[in-house]
Amino acid sequence: MAKTRRICHLLLRFLAFAATLAAVIVMATSHERASIFTVSFEAKYTYSPAFKYFVIANSVVTVYGFLVLFLPKESLLWRLVVALDLVVTMVLISSFSAALAIAQVGKNGNSYAAWLPICDSVPKFCNQVTIALIAGFVAVIAYIILMLHSIHTIIDPLLLRKN
Amino acid sequence: MAKTRRICHLLLRFLAFAATLAAVIVMATSHERASIFTVSFEAKYTYSPAFKYFVIANSVVTVYGFLVLFLPKESLLWRLVVALDLVVTMVLISSFSAALAIAQVGKNGNSYAAWLPICDSVPKFCNQVTIALIAGFVAVIAYIILMLHSIHTIIDPLLLRKN
């Protein structure tokens, strides 16, 4: 039973790691050049602070996720992982929300502010951003579950010891 | 000692409640009409999905914060508050990040996407949004502290009982 739980936990950590890695790669490789009439036009993630924040946050979390995968079961650092899982979840939620807000304007525009949608001109860029956001969302969900599990594991032994 | 801690806790809860309430009121009352040449132009929070999300999220959290203020000390619902504090913190972070991302585009624009800044035309609207975002940020910080305190209080009695 304990072994199954541990395998599930490791699989979820691997999924979270893979999701953040995918989000970084897909977002970072997204750029497209389009020309409207004679004006050449380029779309790149570095042109938006929100997308840059998304890539940086997911990169840091990818490194963290990779390191945690190799943490031995008995390590005392697992107590630190509980706190770090909390921080990581909050950072991921924040970067995902900011990137989603900008992507929404990119897709639908905002007629009141006269911001035109750009997805018609650069559909490939938009698709890649969408895929990166989906990967980012999977990472957020995975880290929320991991965080709840982490909190549960520090409370659980204490509860057991109480009886 | 326990009494001082309880007063600090209540004060922080009140600060969090006041901050979310201020964020809602300031954001919801922000609208300005400007005219550029002959074109009349209006800025309102409802014109941006991110700002709408910010107002809705902060409203819900304001109601929650108000109810928790009147929860008796011995209530069993405090265990639920731990979980709700976690959810509330995540929702607040998400809505704040999304609104900040849009506000940043409103202030600086994005020359690559040809989105022009709107703050020069509607400075009063921009100021109100900035104040709402500052209040939202204070609320985020307050709820992060409250969440850490909540987690601590469920672990603490268990740790004490252990010895």
From TrEMBL, chains A, B:
The chain crosses the membrane at residues 12-30, 50-70, 77-102, 131-155. The keyword Membrane applies. Pfam families: CASP_dom. It is found in: Cell membrane. Its main location: membrane. Keywords: Cell membrane, Membrane, Transmembrane, Transmembrane helix. Residues 4-142 form the Casparian strip membrane protein domain. It is a multi-pass membrane protein. GO terms for cellular component: plasma membrane. PANTHER family: CASP-LIKE PROTEIN 1U1. Belongs to the Casparian strip membrane proteins (CASP) family. Homodimer and heterodimers. This is CASP-like protein.
